[in-house]
């Protein structure tokens, strides 16, 4: 292949390993570099992942062959690494969240605009077969106009004591729920106007942020959505609950379900049952009739493409960059999701409905 590019992965932790794996799988990638600020960790992870890793960021940013930088470092470094990479002329894929504060997220968008560069945020659920199918069914009109969407997400505690996640000043809304708010925005197809969120006192007392959220959105077209999240009822597992033991977790307190209700039908997605179903509503002389008309299940070997398809996302973005194309999901859209999340945090703090227009002044 002629238009091959060199790629660098900044941050070589768990997710960095996934980014390296995707770069290795891409036919558009030639050399892969890694970056970790600590030299010993750079050497260790470089060896483990089989990439040329350095603690000298400038050696990557000044290398003209590196066209694409993917950022998988801790959240507190996303804004800074994105800004430096864009200013060095690199195409950037940055993991969610866009920074830990609204100011950082805003800065990322400003730098993207100022440089005219390529910036996509890692909302890889846009590449998940499960959620793409929902989008496709909605776009085909199979449920009429979507009017209401519920997400129930109950998990086990999976951030653990004294980790950057439990100590982070950013909340689980940015770190985790941004994915799930992003899906609601994507499917409902209308700008969010109002956000109301509540959080009960925490059960997990070693978090620096709430461990539960109840977030309601009202969209411009009148549709509403809801996201209910708690992080303690699912039975404890010592690995990422989304990647392991789905069968056990299907009935031990874990839930990750969406119900999307439209004027002509409804859709349910269920991660722990590896299932998507569709209902059709019709009229009869007696009543509105609801019937399940579609049910699709899939084997665990296909989890990656149906769920968090980071691999597929990254392979695709390497291709976009190599071909000189623009991002498939604009960072400006991801920014709208981040604003929705920050509005939810503000709503919880101030105990009121927060209008998105408050952030646009
Ligand atoms: N899209 C998803 O579904 C998803 C899933 C998991 C993680 N993530 C995101 O990926 C990122 C990394 O998560 P993880 O699970 O790999 O965490 P991790 O703790 O395993 O790895 C983070 C790595 O970043 C390194 N690091 C710290 N500061 C850095 C800096 N200034 N520059 C470069 N590297 C730095 C750390 O040394 C560590 O190796 C986070 O932003 C997280 O939100 C996204």
Give an overview in words.
With 361 residues, this protein is of the alpha/beta class. It folds into two domains: 5-122, 3-Layer(aba) Sandwich (Rossmann fold), CATH 3.40.50; 128-302 and 339-355, 2-Layer Sandwich (Dihydrodipicolinate Reductase, domain 2). It is built from twelve helices and 15 strands. The protein has a nine-stranded mixed sheet with strand order 14-13-12-11-7-10-9-8-15. Strand 5, helix 5 and strand 6 form a beta-alpha-beta unit. The longest helix has 20 residues, at 331-350. The model has no long low-confidence stretch (mean pLDDT 95). The protein binds nicotinamide-adenine-dinucleotide (NAD). Nicotinamide-adenine-dinucleotide (NAD) binds next to helix 1.
Task: List the topology elements.
Elements lengths: L4 E6 L3 H12 L3 E7 L3 H11 L2 E3 L2 H5 L4 E6 L6 H10 L3 E5 L6 H14 L3 E4 L6 H11 L6 E9 L9 H4 L4 H17 L3 E7 L13 E8 L4 E7 L15 H4 L5 E8 L2 E6 L4 E9 L4 E10 L5 H4 L3 H13 L8 H20 L3 E2 L6
Parallel strand pairs: 1-2, 1-4, 2-3, 4-5, 5-6, 7-10
Antiparallel strand pairs: 7-11, 8-9, 8-15, 9-10, 11-12, 12-13, 13-14
Helix pairs in contact: 1-11, 4-5, 5-12, 8-12
Bound molecules: nicotinamide-adenine-dinucleotide (NAD).
The site of nicotinamide-adenine-dinucleotide has 24 residues, from helix 1.
What is the chain-wise order of helices and strands? Answer: EHEHEHEHEHEHEHHEEEHEEEEHHHE
Look up the CATH topology of the largest domain: Dihydrodipicolinate Reductase, domain 2
CATH class label of the largest domain: Alpha Beta
Q: Biggest sheet: strands side by side, in what order?
A: 14-13-12-11-7-10-9-8-15
Number of strands: 15
Specify the helix fraction band: 25-40%
Q: Which hetero ligands occur in this complex? A: nicotinamide-adenine-dinucleotide
CATH architecture verdict of the largest domain: 2-Layer Sandwich
Radius of gyration: 21 Å
- In CATH, what is the homologous superfamily of the largest domain? Dihydrodipicolinate Reductase, domain 2
Work out the strand percent. Answer: 25-35%
Shape label: globular
Number of helices: 12
Structural domains: how many: 2
Task: Please state the oligomeric state of the protein chains shown.
Answer: single chain
Poorly predicted runs of 5 or more residues: none
Biggest beta sheet summary? 9 strands, mixed
Straight-line distance between termini = 48 Å
């Amino acid at each position: 292949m002629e238009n091959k590019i060199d790629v660098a992965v900044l941050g070589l932790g768990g997710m960095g390993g996934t980014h390296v794996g995707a770069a290795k799988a891409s036919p558009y990638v030639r050399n892969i570099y890694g970056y970790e600020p600590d030299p010993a960790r750079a050497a260790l992870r470089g060896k483990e992942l089989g990439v040329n890793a350095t603690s000298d960021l400038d050696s990557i940013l000044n290398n003209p062959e590196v066209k694409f930088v993917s950022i998988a470092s801790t959240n507190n470094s996303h804004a800074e690494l994105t800004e430096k990479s864009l200013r060095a002329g690199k195409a950037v894929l940055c993991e969610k969240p866009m920074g830990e504060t609204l100011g950082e997220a805003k800065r990322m968008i400003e730098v993207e605009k100022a440089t005219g560069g390529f910036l996509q945020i890692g909302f890889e659920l846009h590449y998940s077969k499960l959620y793409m199918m929902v989008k496709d069914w909605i776009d085909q009109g199979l449920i009429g106009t979507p009017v209401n969407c519920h997400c129930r997400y109950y998990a086990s505690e999976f951030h653990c004591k004294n980790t950057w996640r439990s100590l982070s000043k950013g909340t689980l809304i940015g770190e985790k729920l941004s994915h799930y708010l992003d899906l609601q925005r994507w499917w409902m197809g209308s700008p969010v106007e109002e956000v109301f969120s509540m959080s009960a006192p925490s059960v997990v007392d070693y978090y620096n942020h709430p461990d539960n959220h109840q977030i309601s959105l009202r969209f411009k077209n009148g549709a509403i959505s809801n996201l209910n999240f708690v992080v303690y009822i699912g039975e404890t597992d010592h690995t990422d609950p989304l990647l392991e033991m789905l069968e056990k977790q299907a009935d031990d307190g874990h839930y990750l379900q969406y119900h999307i209700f439209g004027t002509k039908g409804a859709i349910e997605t269920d991660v722990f049952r590896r299932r998507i179903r569709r209902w059709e509503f019709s009229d009869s002389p007696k009543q509105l009739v609801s019937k399940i008309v579609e049910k699709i299940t899939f084997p665990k070997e296909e989890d990656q493409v149906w769920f968090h398809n980071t691999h597929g996302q990254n392979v695709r973005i390497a291709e976009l960059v190599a071909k000189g194309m623009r991002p498939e999901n604009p960072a400006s859209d991801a920014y709208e999701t981040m604003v929705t999340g920050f509005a939810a945090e503000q709503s919880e703090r101030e105990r009121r409905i927060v209008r998105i227009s408050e952030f646009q002044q």
